[in-house]
Amino acid sequence: MTALKPLIRCREIGDPDLNAVAELLTRGFPRRSRGYWSGGLHRQATRAVPHGYPRYGYLLEHDGNPVGVLLLIYSDRGTTLQPEIWCNLSSWYVAPEFRNYATMLTKIAQRLPEVTYVNISAARQTWPIVEAQGFRAYCEGIFVSVPSLSFAGLGAWIEHVTADAQAVQGIPSDEADLLIRHARNGCLSVVIRSEERPIPLVLQPVRIRQGRVALPAMQLIYCRDVSDYVACAGAIGRFLLRRGRVSVITDANGPIPGLVGFYTDRRGRKYAKGPQQARLGNLSDTELPLYGP
């Protein structure tokens, strides 16, 4: 008798698969705990997803057993009349003995022409692979600033947007929803108010590792434009100092005029491909606020 060829297939991840997905990702990323993945998957389970798109991503199976996973995080950055679908290609792992089938995951995950795909955590050794898939770098590095050393925004006051807020005065409803849902995910959502205009920002607590020491900092997750952060840097810097945070990490393609700090391209490269133009200063609804740094 001729032995049957083992069945390899790729399918969407469903709720019953979450334990297996967490197990695979814990195996593939040993520096991350199972609780890290389970917490992020829970947040994915409860968030709004554009209609018709996968909630979690795709699973690779061998004879019914999970052997690979690619997490996808879909969001709509457009309007009701004009959707703008974005997808963060997040954590990707395939068991070593099935790596020949890994392209099945990437091909099915990137097949929709109306979607703008982003990869915000590509390891340096994978950059040639990512670029071969049609991605182009829109962010080359990061700028680490010390905003308290800036005089910009003096006289402004800061409103802390909490997770139980219902609306934010002077902020459009869709942007207010963004501030509130990121606050629910543990981010710091604020509005800097002055006589000129309100400036919404979302920041996330992170740590900058220098050798064995991990210094507390904040990652800029959302702003309308990086120039908005520069314009209120002094006010936000003093606000953060009272919370024990000295520096803010911002996506950048070089030094940012008006900020005190330093630029590096040794980390922070981010990629995108699709119909929309990715911009600096918008990491909303991606793996960072959902899963953590």
TrEMBL record:
SUPFAM superfamilies the UniProt entry points to: Acyl-CoA N-acyltransferases (Nat)
InterPro entries referenced in this protein's UniProt entry, alphabetically: Acyl_CoA_acyltransferase
Full protein name: Acyl-CoA acyltransferase
Organism: Bradyrhizobium oligotrophicum S58
Organism taxonomic ancestry: Bacteria, Pseudomonadati, Pseudomonadota, Alphaproteobacteria, Hyphomicrobiales
